[in-house]
Amino acid sequence: MGFCQPRGGGRRAGNLLARALIPFTALRRLLVLPARPSRFGDAAIVVFLLSQALDGMFTYLGLRQFGAAAEANPLILSVIPVLGQGPAVASAKLFAAMLGVLLHLRGVHLAVALLSGFYIAAAVVPWTLLLLVR
Question: Quick one: 80 and 115 in the same domain?
Answer without folding.
Answer: yes
